[in-house]
Design goal:
alpha+beta
Amino acid sequence: MSFYTSLTGLNAATAQLGVTANNVANVSTVGFKESFALASKTVDVKGDGFESRASVAVDSKDIINLMPGVPNQTGRAMDIAMQAATVLGVQADNGEIGFTRRGDLRVSPTGLIENAAGHLVLGEAGPINIPPGQLVTISPDGTVFGSLPSEPAVAPIELGKLMLRDASEMPLTRRKDGLFEPIAEQFKGTDFPTGPEIVLLQSGSLEGSNVNPIEAMIKMMDFSRSYESQIKMINEIKSIDISRRSSWLRKNNDARHDCWSTLTNRWTGVD
């Protein structure tokens, strides 16, 4: 089982190294959230002689740490920094619903709100359309207003409300496209019920990454050492296995040679 244990450790170290490297690479990404954990589960080892044995399999899903990053004031009306465990619904490239903390919003050439990553921002009733020439403002609860700069006396009109959800009780994982989604299977690729906390945002600001670069680099070095240690252990186990196999083959060949010699001597009458 030592081989399976080492292989499991290698898989875990590889996954952890990948997650941590991604954290380090996004230290300066707007609204980026670090991944802080890897889940594991016990599985039965199949095959002859393994009926009563089990091993630990690594589940490479990384759990999102929604701890807020530092908000940086920009003064730009369409920049938003989500607070607490608030996340924003966007449309993924495959049409599914994903969530993000990235709040550098803009009006696309087609008149719809998107973020700087190109993800279409969703409202409670679908994408939010901005009429030409409208000056956009966003309230703390996510309501989007539009007004004409040429008509300052006219009250802003409500254009929609951002799809904001409280994920304080909904663990999220990172999708392959970098967006968030609930771990719960029934909510993957779709909306989920908002939690008990009030969803809030701060307009005119952008949230920085919550990755601590020093801590992330230390973790990366630790996982690198763990990876190298598991590789070394696997090579040692393979070397021992090869040595044992060679020894068994030599003994088996010697036994067969002795048996053949005995039979030959009997046939030839040699004592």
